[in-house]
């Protein structure tokens, strides 16, 4: 049996280019469009990835509160590199509870802290949600595996829970909050929590089980009773 031998063709040879031109024409593809494609994809930095999942209002947020910056340093120091020379990843770390009036800048500081973590060279899988949105997603309803969703939120390496205490209190809300916080407490997963409630009022809303765990797992900071949104609007 004879084996047919074909001379190798260079990509830039006339025959190859002609064949490519015919294929592109048959598929109605303009050769100019192909020529304009970059040789390599544009680099997509970790900060770009972070900003893609961040609300536009907070994409330029910069944390400057001393206790928020201290929390971010603690999380960065606890980050672990999965292999030699790899980027350190957030796996465990401290948590922070920010309390203050509406518009005090708590959410801005939270997003700024995560942004600062990424800029410092730490890798982090994170999720941000308001407490009201979280309860809406977890409420049992047809076609949704609420238990699976709760497990996913509970295991997220870094979680922002905004406006804890804004949703209407109920036994179901207290139970779901307990299960979420208890999981993160046990596994020492860093959690950023903001609330408009005074710290002294948390127990009446969240119950003893949740409040006790938050007291142990978080550094608590109360913001000045100033609505920065109204201040900026007035200026």
From TrEMBL:
Name of the featured protein: ATP-binding protein
PANTHER family cross-referenced by the UniProt entry: ATP-BINDING PROTEIN RV3427C IN INSERTION SEQUENCE-RELATED, CHROMOSOMAL REPLICATION INITIATOR PROTEIN DNAA
Keywords: ATP-binding, Nucleotide-binding
Occurrences of domain IstB-like ATP-binding (ranges): 96-210
One of the record's GO molecular function terms: ATP binding
Taxonomic placement: Bacteria, Bacillati, Actinomycetota, Actinomycetes, Kitasatosporales
Tree of life domain: Bacteria
InterPro entries membership: IstB_ATP-bd, P-loop_NTPase
Originating organism: Streptomyces cavernicola
